[in-house]
């Protein structure tokens, strides 16, 4: 079933000027789309659900002008994103979570303008931070147990030796 000026359509249901579509359901001027459900003006789309003009998108759910995205969930103008969810202008990160204009992100969790961050959790503009826990300027403090006064056992021993 194809409706309204479809050219070369190989889909079950296509509407309104679709070209070369191989999807189950495609709507409103999609070109070369191979998805289950796609909406307005998607081109070369191979995802399950995509919304609002997307090109070359291979993700499950991608929203708002994603180009060439291969992620589970990406939002708001992500380019070449391979992440699950990521937040706020991360560049070249490798995270699980990405939102809002992220490019090439592959980190676990990054927040607020981190660049090239490959750590587990980093907050607010930290660069190349690979330490577990660092506390206020301690340098090589590894004493076992040094006491300045001799113990009562030491005093008793010295009395016996005398």
Automatic annotation (TrEMBL):
Which residues lie within the region annotated Disordered?
Answer: 1-162
Task: Name its species.
Answer: Dreissena polymorpha
Name the residue ranges with Polar residues bias: 7-49, 67-142, 150-162
Ranges of Basic and acidic residues composition bias in the record: 51-66
Its protein name is Uncharacterized protein
């Amino acid at each position: 079933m194809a409706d309204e000026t479809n050219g070369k359509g190989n889909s079950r249901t296509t509407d309104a000027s679709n070209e070369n579509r191989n999807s189950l359901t495609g709507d409103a001027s999609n070109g070369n789309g191979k998805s289950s459900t796609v909406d307005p003006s998607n081109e070369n789309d191979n995802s399950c659900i995509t919304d609002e003009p997307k090109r070359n998108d291979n993700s499950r759910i991608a929203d708002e002008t994603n180009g060439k995205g291969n992620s589970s969930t990406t939002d708001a103008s992500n380019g070449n994103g391979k992440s699950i969810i990521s937040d706020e202008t991360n560049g070249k990160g490798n995270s699980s979570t990405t939102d809002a204009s992220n490019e090439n992100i592959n980190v676990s969790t990054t927040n607020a303008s981190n660049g090239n961050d490959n750590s587990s959790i980093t907050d607010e503009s930290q660069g190349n931070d690979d330490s577990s826990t660092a506390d206020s300027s301690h340098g090589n403090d590894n004493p076992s147990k040094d006491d300045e006064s001799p113990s009562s056992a030491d005093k008793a021993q010295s009395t016996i030796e005398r």
